[in-house]
Every structure is written in C-alpha cells, then in structure tokens.
Specification:
The protein has about 725 residues and is an alpha/beta fold. The chain is built from 25 helices and 17 strands. It starts with a helix and ends in a 31-residue tail after the last helix.
Length: about 725
C-alpha cells in the first residue's frame, strides 16, 4: 500500500512484485453479482502460485473462508505457496490499523477521510484493494467488519481469478461492495417428486454462498421426518433429523441460514390421505386443514416444535398459500357467516400465536391475504411484528409488481419478494420469463423496502432436473445483492465465464440459444394448460389434442430445433476448446435439455410425415396407379415402419434415449425415490409407439397379401388435414422393357 504499512507487515520489497499481465476495465471483470463500486486495476500472473496471509490473530471463520478459497484454487490447479515472489492475498479486519487503512485507501478520490465502514456496509460488506509494494502491485488486500464480509470478499477474489494452472491471472481491481437486501435466499421444492440428496444440498449451499446468497429454504409437505409424527414421511423420500441437523451445521460455515418451510394450512393432501388425520381435513382427502378441527392445530404444533429442534435459525415458514378448499367443507358455515378472507386471516393468526413460544419470525405466502386489504390493515400490530409476508409472482408484469406489494406495504407488514426461475412443468426452465420476473420483482421489492428476496424453484409435475436450474438461481443471487434493476445482458455475458470457466463465450451463446428456443414455445403457446411444455413432450401427436398442438408448433418447429441443435453444438465446441470447463454436470443438463426440446420438435415433424405418407399411399391406391407409381405403396408404408430407419422406430428410439439420459440426470442430484413414476411415463409412451409398430406391420402385411389399406383411424392415425396427391408415375423410357 502507498503508506508502506502492509508491505512492512509482510516484509515485502518492490523487487518481489508479481509480474504484470495487462489492464482491465470494469465491464471486462464479468462479476456475479456486480459490485457497488468497481475501479479497474492491473492484471497479475499467477504463474508462481498464490500466497494467502491473514493478519494475526486469524479467527476460525476467516480461516475457513481462506480454506474454501484454497480448495477452489486447488481445483483450478493453482498452487497456494509460501514463495514471497508469488501473487499474494492479504486478509485483514476493520478493527485493525491495516484494515482501516485498506478501507480508507479504497475510497474514491476526493472522499472525506474515514477509517470505519458506514452502517450499511458493516454486516456483510467488504473492500478489495490492489496491494502495492512501492510502485508495484503484488496482489490484493481485503478487509471487512465481519466474518461474512471476509467470506464474501474471498468469493469475489475467486471470480477475479481467471483461467487455470500457470496461465491463470488475477484482476487486481479496487472494489467496495455490500448487499442491497439483507436476506437473499433460494426456496427449494422437496415435495413434488424430486428430493435432493444431502450431498447435492451441500453442493447447493457451497454454490449459493459463492454468489453471496445467505438463506436456503427447503420446502416440505410430507418430506421432513417428524419424531412427533412419523406417519407423515414416506421412507426414502424425506429428510431425516440427522440430515437436517447436518445441513444446518454445514450451511452455517458458509454464512447461510436454513429456513424450513412446512405447509401448515394448504398443500397437505399427502398428509390428509392418512385415515389418522382424516378429521383434520376441510374436505375428505383434500389438501387444506380445517380451522374448526382441534386436530389441525395439534398437527401444526407438533411439526413446528420438531422443526425448531432441527432448524434453530430465526425463521420458520408456514406456507398458507393456495388454500383453495377452504370454505368448501367443514368451515362452510363459518365462511358463509364471516367471509372467506376473515376465516383465513383468523386461522393464520391462530397459527402464529400458537408458534409464538418458539421465538421465531413467521413467514407466510401473501397470495391469499392480499385479497383483503382492509382486513390486513386491521390486523393486530403484534401479528405484524411476528410475521413476514413472502409475496410471490412468477411471471413478469407489463409495468411493475406494485399491485402485489401495495396491500401489505399500506398495512404495515414486513415484506419479502419471491420470483421464480420458471422451471416448473417445463422441458427446460423458461429463462426469458425467469430473468425478467426476477429482475422486475426484486427491483420493485427494493422500492417497497423489502428486506428479503426468496427466489423459487418448483417441481409441480415431478420432472424438473436440478442441474438445469443454475442460470435462474445465479441471476436471483445477483439481483438480490445488487441495488435497483439488475442488468440481464451483463449477467448473460458473465455466466459462462464465472460458473463454467468458459472464456470463449460459447457457453453464453448456448444459453442464449436454449433461452430462444423456450421463448419460441412460450410465445406460440406451445403448452398443454397446466402441464406446460412438459405436457407437450408427452402429448400423443396422433391424438385430437396432439393434432391441435401440431397447428401451433408447425410454424416454429424448424427454428425451434435449430436453436436447440445450436446449443448442443456450442456446448460440444466449448468442451473441445477447454476440456477443464467447470460444472460439467450442469453442462450435461443443458445438453440434455436442448436434446429434449429438439426431440419434441422432431416428434411433431415425424408425425406429420407419417400422416402424409399414409395419405399418399391411400391416394395412390385410389388412383389405380399403384403398380407403376414411385414411391410405391410398400415404400410409403416403409417410411412409417422399417427396422432400419422407419419413423415409428425413430419415435421409439428417441423416447428410449431420453429415458436413459433422464434417469442419469435424476440420480446425480436426487434420491431414487419418486423417479419411477417419471420413468413409467417414458415406458408407457415407448410402449405406445412399439404397439403402433405392430399395428402398422399388420397394415403392411394386409397390403402385401390383399393390396388394400385400412382407414388410418383403425390404428390410431389421424387422416391428413389437406388433400394429398398420389405418387407420380414415372414416364416410360423409349425402348425400355
């Protein structure tokens, strides 16, 4: 540093400075999240490795953060050394003279002198400063007021290191940074099929922390084992007590708070199908607890007492969204007398009061209560003090999200916002919708004073794959840390470099291609109502609904497939150029998603071609020219069914290949439980096409033996929508016999 204090502390001399590689600009750093204040510096070679020093005494949390950085460097084949010639990273705290000086020298020119961070920086903020030895930069010095700040500073250092091995370099920029939102979280659906393995949850924790997320919220309906209620959890498909305790301890090292969400009002069908709890249901085998039944509160009380033992953090989330059954059964007389909103809010208040002895802040979803703004204003202040509204909105809005937030802001509630990565019911996350939703909702949440963002992923139909989700997860992290409206183009230009270590830009291009493919389907409404594009993937193109969908997909199918195939090619080329790309399993998932999109398009193309071929065979037969026509009827039927390359075989093989790749993807991140229902859907679909192979083979036999063709409806094929001409008869060649 210019004063020489740090250089003296490290016993450096100017002759020991690391070699310079070049200079950078703020845009060239491609950091996720983008820091508040970035000033470019020099680029330093790491050919001699990295030396990491921590000003004594270095406490256990800072030592853990340094060990975490060391592990990242090792994975990138960059040695951590004691060589004084190596580029160095020096860790200080703000309660030391060197830390205060580091902070003071990081301030922009002309700033008032200061030796302490402002209040908004202190909890998690940090400073990075090129460390000078005389006139030479030898590395980076960093300082923070807390262990979280030191940890986040070192996460930024990871991103400032580009490349691997002796060719790696460090961008020694000046950075002052702190978060816009106090709580930055990910909501992880563990209740609609997929249940993460503990190992994958740990990977999730590490990755979230690397992008400065500080909250992880697993979502439970009946996928957490409760000692007070063992009946609820399905063996093999639930987290155990030991899993929970281990996850909380692991996350704490990475400055992540684990917040359990246990549904405590609606979404409890899997619990309420048990006869033991039948009396607690609003309707027989429904999804909503009946407020009028004492057993309902007994169930809630037991679950949350157990959760408190496993998850000792400051929050619990009681859900309470989408209580659609309420007022249709046992509480009908009460809702008729007082109104649905009053009954809902009364029971929510009873839940919060019951949980008060646990000394937790209670989170609840805001979708139901927002319908009663006057009742919200009339809620007791004690209720508002004990709760946080998590308002969700999963689609971008034409202007803003004000209508979602105003009822609670006007009523004096604390608010968090919950956008979505739009992965549910999709063959691949709809990233165009997701990025806009995350950007807008997080921006508007900050405008309304929201202290938290809870980015969500859901598995509504039980098919979503975790390694497809990283794009939306990381943008959510960026948007919650950064003030105001986060730049989507800046993120799209940074993701491949920071997450995969791809400096070529090919991975970013691949993401753009697959985003464009999903946007095409979204804009063309290629969706089966509540099943999204997943439903289209499973749709029988010969069915009535399939033919209606074919009308929507035909205009875009070629472009759709070209986008998907471009993504596959770009990923392959990136891997050839750099065999050491990071997060290989996530790249496999993008590749699989692109192949699934491509096959979805191919499926409709093959269907149209088969329908056309059969119609042409019928027209040729009807024209009476079948003996001389080319292609002949047998050839046209062979287009449908041929062991070598028939279109029916293409259907069967395509789904079989998708099934195998899907199973591999699932088992990389999820417990085996709940995989089988998805595989059975593959098997059912495969068997449908195998059966059609047999049916068309019978048609071929009929043609061979009788020279007749049945109506296509007899084997499930629709007739062609347009008239089809018979096969032409080739002109006779003079002299030919």
């Amino acid at each position: 540093m210019r004063s020489g204090l740090l250089a003296l502390a490290l016993a450096f001399t100017s002759s020991l400075a690391a070699p310079l590689v070049g200079a950078q600009t703020p845009d060239s750093l491609h950091l996720i999240p983008v820091p508040r204040d970035v000033r470019p510096g020099t680029t330093l070679s790491l050919a001699l490795g990295v030396r990491i020093d921590c000003q004594a005494p270095c406490n256990a949390e800072d030592s853990f953060a340094i060990a975490d950085l060391t592990a990242t460097l090792a994975a990138r084949h960059i040695p951590v050394v004691t060589n004084p010639l190596a580029t160095h990273i020096f860790v200080t705290r703000m309660d030391t003279k060197l830390g205060q000086q580091t902070y003071a020298e990081s301030l922009p020119a002309g700033s008032p002198a200061a030796t302490s961070m402002p209040a908004e920086m202190q909890p998690e903020g940090y400073v990075l400063l090129p460390d000078r030895n005389g006139d030479h930069v030898g590395g980076i010095a960093l300082t923070a007021s807390t262990s979280a700040g030191v940890f986040y500073a070192l996460q930024t250092v990871k991103q400032l290191i580009i490349g691997e091995g002796p060719g790696a370099h460090l961008n020694a920029a000046t950075i002052r940074d702190w978060p816009a939102m106090k709580w930055r979280g990910l909501h992880d659906d563990l209740s609609r099929g997929p249940v993460d393995t503990l190992d994958f949850q740990k990977k999730l924790i590490r990755t979230l922390a690397a992008y400065k997320v500080n909250l992880y919220s697993p979502y439970f309906e009946t996928t957490q084992f409760f000692p007070s209620n063992p009946l609820a959890a399905v063996p093999g498909a639930a987290m155990s007590q030991q899993d929970a305790i281990q996850l909380v301890a692991y996350a704490a090292q990475y400055h992540i708070t684990v917040v359990p969400e246990q549904e405590a009002f609606g979404h409890l069908r899997h619990l309420l199908t048990w006869e033991t709890y039948a009396n607690a249901a609003e309707t027989p085998h429904g999804a909503v607890l009946a407020p009028s039944e004492p057993q309902s509160m007994q169930i809630i009380d037991g679950m949350f007492k157990d959760l408190t033992q496993m998850y000792p953090g400051p929050f619990v989330h009681v859900g309470a969204d989408e209580t659609f059954d309420l007022g249709t059964g046992k509480t009908r007389p009460d809702t008729d007398a007082r109104g649905l909103n009053a009954v809902y809010l009364d029971y929510l208040q009873r839940i919060v009061t019951d949980l008060q002895p646990l000394h937790k802040k209670v989170l609840f979803w805001g979708d139901i209560a927002q319908k009663a703004p006057d009742l919200l204003k009339a809620m007791p202040q004690s209720f508002k003090d004990q709760t946080i509204v998590v308002q969700w909105g999963y689609s971008p809005q034409p202007k803003n999200f004000d209508k979602f937030l105003t009822p609670y802001a006007d009523a004096g509630f604390q608010i968090w916002v919950a956008p979505s990565i739009n992965n549910y019911r999709q063959v691949f996350p709809n990233q165009q919708e997701a990025l806009l939703d995350i950007q807008q909702f997080t921006r508007d949440g900050q405008k309304f004073g929201a202290q938290g963002q809870l980015n969500t992923l859901w598995h509504d139909d039980g098919e979503s794959l975790a390694n497809m989700d990283w794009y939306g997860v990381l943008f959510g992290a960026a948007a919650a840390w950064q003030p105001g409206e986060s730049s989507i183009p800046a993120f799209q230009a940074s993701y491949g470099l920071q997450f995969h270590g791809d400096s070529s830009g090919l991975i970013d291009q691949a993401e753009n291609e697959i985003t464009a493919a999903m946007a095409l389907m979204h804009d063309a409404k290629v969706s089966t109502g509540g099943e999204g594009s997943d439903g289209v993937f499973w749709l029988d193109p010969w069915s009535k609904d399939g033919q209606a969908m074919a009308v929507k997909i035909r205009p875009i199918v070629s472009q759709l497939r070209l986008h998907a195939e471009s993504a596959i090619n770009l990923i392959g080329k990136a891997r050839v150029q750099n065999p050491n790309l990071r997060e290989s399993e996530a790249l496999d998932a993008i590749d699989f998603g692109a192949r699934r999109i491509d096959f979805l398009g191919l499926m409709f193309q093959l269907s149209d071609e088969m329908i056309h071929s059969y119609a042409q065979a019928q027209a040729t037969l009807a024209a009476g020219t079948w003996k001389k026509a080319s292609p002949g009827v047998a050839s046209l039927l062979g287009d449908l069914n041929n062991v070598a390359n028939g279109r029916l075989q293409d259907m069967t093989y395509g789904y079989s290949q998708m099934r195998q790749m899907y199973q591999e993807q699932w088992l990389r991140t999820y417990r085996p439980a709940n995989l089988q229902p998805v595989l059975e859907r593959y098997d059912f679909t495969i068997q449908r096409w195998i059966a059609r192979v047999d049916e068309v083979r019978a048609v071929q036999h009929q043609w061979s033996e009788q020279h007749t063709l049945p109506d296509p409806s007899q084997f499930g094929m629709p007739a062609s929508l347009t008239p089809v001409a018979p096969s032409p008869v080739p002109p006779e060649i003079p002299g030919a016999r």
